[in-house]
Specification:
The protein contains 5 helices and 4 strands. By secondary structure, it is of the alpha+beta class.
Length: 149
Amino acid sequence: MEDVDACDLSGIRYAVNATLHDNEASFAFDEKCKEQGITVIHAVNLGKAAFLAVEKPKGYPFSEVVKKGTDDFRCSLGKYISQYGMFWQMPVPWIDEAIRHYSNESFPQRGIGAYITAGYCANILANLAEGKEVKYFPKFYLSPLLEEI
């Protein structure tokens, strides 16, 4: 984490955290960005889907998705997506099935999910740079391949 502390991010307005979110360094990076007023895009490959969350420097922290010491990060994220969908009466059945299926192991990361995630990330970055409206966490973007939401 010393490397993160030594990071000079001056002049940067937006950053992308596309790490596995499986250790403290990932969230230390987020904290460093918050300290320096940088908006962070969290880009997560969910196998056949893309999840993206845009975190404002003074906004709700994305790290709240992770239940320390319990689930794999992607399972925690899946549960967050499921609860969000249920709250807004827009259930996400495929994510519930994935949580059941991968509860004892990590969600797979597939190439198609990486491509979808990268495309959405580029689109969000362009919208931010152009001053267009984007959703900020706790809202998020979810794009499954050939699935209805």
